[in-house]
Design a protein that fits this description.
Length: 382
């Protein structure tokens, strides 16, 4: 009960067997960054890395949670007392989902929960959304709620917005809930409509590298909220419901109507939505290598206009490109986190080594390298 390794079983913790086991993955976004809260497009894939949850209902109104990554103790909470801001640390995420379900009128009670995750945390790979979605999909089954995947994703997003206090959009939760193996999720954040776009990198001898810069990204520090507020102010000044409604053709006329500090934000969002549509067209045409220049252009826009890059992500992109990547960009919210690089499979080790060497020469902590293969969204395992 006091060990922090993954060897402590559900039965060790709670003295009985779980009623089921579920998993929800982390994600990388191919393109479409900081577009979701502007009601635009994104194109994430699910990672094989996931949060696994075992759970069993309780009838006494207690929520007991334990995580193999959480430091050893079972955290015990009273479901009826859950309130935004009331739960510190990682336990806030499972608590938030239970709160959001009940706040939306769903009759859920307590549970015993065991969590284990191999999604790197703080790496911009949506470990928080994976945790929320794992709890959401487990409670949906345990309490027979019958909610569809997009509804669960929205509840998980609300949990993070209202309970944890991070004003994120819906991309991470939609990716974790709705992605399918072998496909990218073409997400329209305005109406939550999705299309599975086949991505067969292996057939094109391509590999998608994920280079975690080890710079801890943290969206809770206010910068993300400020960017979101800037976008919403720009949309209001233009008389639009959201920046999604601004067409690329109308951008030149719109920019002079905005204060200078908001113009780069708007330029990024409009350009990024167009890049998602362009990327989808290349994937539909069976040409994934053509994504390369789109990824690199997306990075330049995040670095220069949106200003959410950092020296480590910029260096990873430059080193990957210099070593022959078709394209590279930071993925996720920014301020650190991970870079993706699209490379020939035969060159993958060389590109990863070149980035590692560039980091060594710059005096940065060595990056961690993963390979992203489009994996399955949230699901029941047993
Ligand atoms: C974070 C947020 C998402 C999205 C991305 C940027 O991952 O959680 O909602 O805004 O940043 O695209």
């Amino acid at each position: 009960m006091t060990t922090s390794t993954g060897t402590t079983t559900f039965t060790d913790l709670y003295g009985r067997a779980p009623e089921g086991e579920w998993a929800a993955p982390g994600r990388v976004n191919l393109i479409g960054e900081h577009t979701d809260y502007n009601l635009g497009f994104a194109l994430p894939i699910a990672l094989p890395q996931a949060v696994r949850i075992q759970a069993a209902r309780r009838t006494d109104g207690l929520l007991r949670v334990w995580s193999a990554q959480g430091g050893g103790e079972v955290t015990e909470l009273r479901v009826a007392d859950l309130a935004p801001g009331a739960v510190p640390g990682w336990a806030a995420y499972p608590a938030a989902v239970v709160w959001a379900l009940r706040d939306a009128g769903h009759e859920v009670g307590g549970a015993d929960i065991r969590l284990d995750s191999d999604v790197p945390s703080g790496a911009g790979l949506s470990s928080s959304a994976a945790l929320e979605c794992a709890v959401a999909v487990a409670f949906n089954d345990l309490y027979g709620l019958g909610l569809a995947a997009p509804e669960l994703a929205l509840l998980a997003q609300r949990a993070e917005n209202a309970f944890v206090g991070v004003p994120c959009g819906n991309m991470d939760q939609m990716a974790s809930m709705c992605c399918r193996p072998g496909a990218a999720l073409f997400l329209d954040s305005r109406d939550l409509s999705t299309r599975q776009v086949p991505v067969d990198l292996a057939a094109a001898d391509l590999t998608l590298l994920v280079l975690d810069t080890r710079v801890k990204h943290d969206l809770g520090d206010g910068a993300y909220a400020a960017l979101r507020a800037g976008c919403e102010r720009a949309a209001a000044l233009l008389g639009l419901p959201a920046l999604r409604a601004l067409d690329a053709a109308d951008l030149p006329a719109a920019l002079p109507r905005l204060p200078s500090e908001l113009r780069p934000l708007v330029r990024h969002v409009v350009g990024e939505n167009a890049r998602v549509e362009e990327a989808v067209a290349h994937l539909d045409a069976g040409d994934p290598a053509a994504l390369g220049p789109i990824l690199t252009a997306g990075h330049a826009s995040l670095r220069d206009d949106y200003q959410v890059s950092c020296p480590e992500t910029d260096l990873a992109v430059e080193a990957a490109l210099a070593a022959g990547a078709y394209g590279a960009r930071m993925t996720g919210g920014g301020f650190g986190g991970s870079v993706i690089a699209l490379v020939d499979t035969a060159a993958a080790d060389r590109v990863a080594a070149a980035v590692t060497e560039a980091f060594r020469a710059a005096g940065y902590t060595a990056p961690r390298t993963l390979t992203a293969v489009p994996a399955e969204g949230a699901r029941r395992l047993g």
